[in-house]
Amino acid sequence: MPPKREPTEFENELTSRLAEKDLPNGKKYAPSSIKVFTGNIYKLHNMIYPGETLKGLDFLMDYQNVIKILNEQKGKQGEPIKLNAKISYYNAIIVALSTTNFNQEIKQHYADVRDSIQVKRDQEQPKGVNPSKQQSAIDKVSKQDIFKMIDTLIDESKQKEGLTIYALKKDPELKRRNAFMRALVFKIYTEHPLRNDIANMKIISKKWFEENKHTEDFKKNNWIVIQKKKVTMIKMKYKTATKYGMTLIKIENDELKDMIKTWITDWLKMKEGDLLYDKTPLISFATGTPLTSNDLSHLMLNTSEKYLGVGISTTIMAKIFSLAPIDIETATIEELKPAKKQAKQRGHSLATKMGSYAKQ
User: 210: burial class by Cβ within 10 Å (0-12, 13-18, 19+)?
Assistant: First the structure.
């Protein structure tokens, strides 16, 4: 039987650091947990630098190589190592780095990768019904199909006769209004992968925002701030608001900004001065009644079924227009930034984004 390996000087140092570390719950790491953490750091270092002495954590700076090495590891039968084993290594990395002033961006990247693998593991375990209808819609509809539908709706908003939205032909102005509104809704979701958060979103000015941002009324609604050169969405009331709080979404696409302003001036009949005091719903029926979340879902499903032959929801839009790379484990920190931005706008973690909205 080979003699038991003695821990390196650095392993002993890391063990001491972890033993002294206070956890958020006020407790300490159990000695058995510390042994697993330090042991996995040693094993990982030995995978990358076989036979060399572990002297620190600098080898973790090359995060792409570390991730690549972990992905190449095989089990006893030559199979890829189990996801739980990978998660254990990433936990060790994250815990070890928490005792240092290591590069924060790289630390967070390891955590993002670990969290995404956890989501992948959980999805592989049988839980309920696979959303086959969603996947079917994604397979049938492309980004180009969505953009073509938006263009068709904009064209119909300019026509005087022959509109296809409704069979009823008594009020062509109403039909044109509805065509533009539907185009605007889908245009918003090509740029920003929100849930049904634009339902009952209200139009305000920057002045109103500054004067009311601490009021209870402000906390209970979603808003869109209109300025001469800027348009900003503010999410206060959404599914994960208690976790993520106020979310600011700057509208950067000039075409979308122009559509929003055209909608406000030409169809909602609001002048710029009105924005100083008005809280008009962004998306509403011709009567001025705001669309509910349910109404918004029906509007999107009915419109897409008519023009594309398949129902498209906000969830499907988020998947079609996802900027998440296929595999977080091969992505760089820079490549993940657009996906992180989308995840923040929708109101969930990068792990959820990668698990539920990554490109297939």
Answer: exposed
Q: What is the DSSP string of 9-62?
A: HHHHHHHHHHHHPPPTTS----HHHHHHHHHHHHHHHHHHSTTPPP--SGGGG-
pTM of this prediction? Answer: 0.67
CA atoms within 13 A on the CB side of 49: 13
In terms of Cα–Cα distance, which of 354, 291, 282 is closest to 318? 354
Q: What DSSP element (H or E) covers 293?
A: helix 293-308
In the β-sheet with 202-204, what is the strand arrangement from edge to edge? 202-204, 223-226, 231-235, 247-250
Instruction: Give burial (CB, 10 Å; 0-12/13-18/19+) of 117.
Output: buried
Helices (H), 83-128: 83-97, 104-124
Q: Cβ distance 333 to 175 under 8 Å?
A: no
CB 114 within 8 A of CB 87: yes
pLDDT tens-place values along the chain, 360 residues long: 567 788 899 999 999 999 999 888 788 898 889 999 999 999 999 999 999 999 999 999 999 999 999 999 988 788 888 888 999 999 999 999 999 988 899 999 999 899 888 877 766 654 433 456 677 778 889 999 999 999 999 999 988 655 454 444 556 788 899 999 999 999 999 999 899 999 989 999 888 899 999 998 898 899 999 988 899 999 998 888 888 888 999 999 999 999 999 999 888 888 765 555 468 899 998 888 889 888 999 999 999 999 999 999 998 998 899 877 777 788 888 888 888 888 788 877 777 666 666 555
User: Cβ distance 246 to 235 under 8 Å?
Assistant: yes
Cα 228 to chain centroid distance, Å, stands at: 28
Cα–Cα dist 262/42, whole Å: 61
Of the candidates 214, 256, 213, the residue with the CA atom closest to the CA atom of residue 231: 256
